[in-house]
Amino acid sequence: MSEEKVVSLGSKKKQNDHKEESSNELVYCSFCGRPNTQVIKMIQGPGVNICSECTMIAVQYLILQDRMPSAEARQILDAFWGKAK
To answer: How far from the centroid of its chain's Cα atoms is residue 80's Cα?
Structure first.
């Protein structure tokens, strides 16, 4: 059982079409430029892609913007960055 590395947030028709192609198609993150073969996961949206690492950087920025992340938020961030290394 293989796990999808690229997840599409498009319409159902597009998702079904994408699943047939996703195993061979390179998809690049719109933020960092890395392909789906070099990241944990990739999310495709309409005309834009974001990898799991860029997503976590964005989430971390939004949490730390308040400068006082909750203990639960800190645990989630620490767990992700520990696994990403």
So the answer is: 12
Mean pLDDT value across residues 31-50: 95
Q: What are residue 29's phi and psi, to 5 degrees?
A: -70, 130
**What pTM, to 2 d.p., does this model score?**
0.61
What is the 3-state composition of the chain as percent helix, strand, coil, each rounded to the nearest 5? 45, 15, 40
What separation in angstroms does the CA of 25 have from each of 20, 38, 80, 82? 10, 13, 26, 28
Q: Is 60 buried (19+), middle (13-18) or exposed (0-12) by CB count in 10 A?
A: middle
Single-letter code of the amino acid located at 39 = V
